[in-house]
Structure formats: C-alpha cells, structure tokens
Amino acid sequence: MTSAETYVTYHRNTYPYIDPTQPKLSCAGKNVLITGGGYGIGKGIARSFAKAKADNLILVGRTRSILDGTKGELEAEFPSTKIHVFSADITNIEAVGELFVSVTSSLGPIDVVVNNAAFLSAVSTLQEANLTNWWRGFEVNVLGTATVTQAFLKTKPAGLKATVVNINTSVAHYGVFPTYSSYAASKMAALRMTECFQAECPDVRFVSLQPGGVDTDMYAKFHMPEDYAMTDIQLPSDTCVWLASEEAAFLAGRFIWTNWDVQELIQRQDKIVSEKELTSMLKPIEGDLY
C-alpha cells in the first residue's frame, strides 16, 4: 500500500466522530444490503446502520435460522428500521441476481452494499492443502464479491450515487503469512479487482476496509497469539457507516484500516488523492512502468 507517513492515532474502540447516531451520518431513506449479515462483523455492521436510521436493511447469508435470529434482535431494538433476510450462497450467480431484482423491485434501489461474507480455508501449507477447500477461498472472496457487486450494478439506476464497502484484511498486503496463502491471495485479488471496479464505475464509491482483529468465529481459526491486541466489533461497524457518508468520498478506490482516525485521513485527503495513496500500486524504483 502506498502511504508516506504513519497515522498518529490508532483506535481499537469506536469514538465519537464516527458515532452513527449523529445527524451528519444519518442513513434515513437509504437501503443497505450486507452479506454475511447474520453474525459476527456483518451483524455488527447491520446494527450500526440501524443506529443511523437506515430505512431498510437487507441481510444475506447461508443459514436462515441465524438470519432470522438477527432480524428479531434488530427489530426489537430498532423498530423504525425494516429488516429483510435472504438465504443465499453469494457464489450462486443466478440466485444473487434474482435476490437483487426482488429487493429492488419491492424496496427500491440499494444505496449501500457491504461485501462482508468471506471464507478462510483450512490453515496449512500448500503441500498439505486440500485444494478444493483452498480454492473455496477464491470462490467466496473473489467470485462471491464480484457476483454481488455485478448484481448490484445491474439493478442500480443510472446516475444514482452509491457506496460499496468490501471488508478485506491486513494479510492481503501487510507481511507474508505462510499457511494462509488462500486467504491472503484471494483477498489481495479482491482488493485489486475492487480498484478496477472503481475505475469502471465513477458514480459508485468502492472502499476496502481492514476491520482489525475482531473476536469472531473466523478469527478463532487464525490461531493468533493470546496477547494479540483486539479490535472491538463496534469500530469497523461504525466505520462502515462513516464510509457511506459524503465526507468519505475522497477514499473512493482505496484501502483503509478501521484503526486509523478518520479525522486524520480527512486532514490528509489532498495528499491521499494527488499521490494515489492507500492503493495497491507498486511504484518502480526509478523511472516509470511504461
């Protein structure tokens, strides 16, 4: 990732500037779709958008019982937001396409999509890997993200300004992680293709978000050290709401860490844009690439 300076403030918990209950972050009148929305980070993101008074939350996942449980919880806490659940495998192109047609015909256009669903293959060296399981990471993290995004773009009215937040990971670009090749490589592929989507669709803001080390079922599979400093789930959840606000427009096509302070990002926005910071571009040692 290209960036010339270190950010001074590093958050592990949410903070007042990104509080989704603020009028400036209101999502009233908006429809928000979240994949993997029944549990973990997806559920946290749904809750933050409900706090921001989104009109409709569309939660997509594979297990209907989990989705229904989350729907009940959110409806009880946020009665003004309507919760809709759909059971679907995001790699199923036909099912996802039908889902978007159904949702947009009944609720209207989707304003925000959060591609949160992901798959972490069994941790192992390539030599020992079950390649079917290893490849599943690419099917979900790359094809699944593309499938949902394509269905969204096909049903989005021309000219409608919208936001797509793709939940990514630090291991896509930071360090080398043996035994995690499927996850790291598929997430890097998702990051790079998202940058291409941004260039293709200037009326949509695409942002990739590293959510930090959040205590979820998937995180438990990482086998991180017990003293690893964790990030509270509300931080990436609230950050997603801020990323859907006009204040975050300058981050289109970029990758950010939820732990960075958004006010510091705002202060740096001219440099971020002019020098193409927070992108996956690798600058040559000297000269230019072409």
Automatic annotation (TrEMBL):
The reply on keyword Oxidoreductase is: yes
For whether the record's keyword set contains Signal, the answer is: no
Record-level Gene Ontology MF annotations: oxidoreductase activity
Q: Which UniProt keywords apply?
A: NADP, Oxidoreductase
The record's listing under CDD domains reads: SDR_c
**Family statement:** Belongs to the short-chain dehydrogenases/reductases (SDR) family.
* Descriptive protein name: Uncharacterized protein
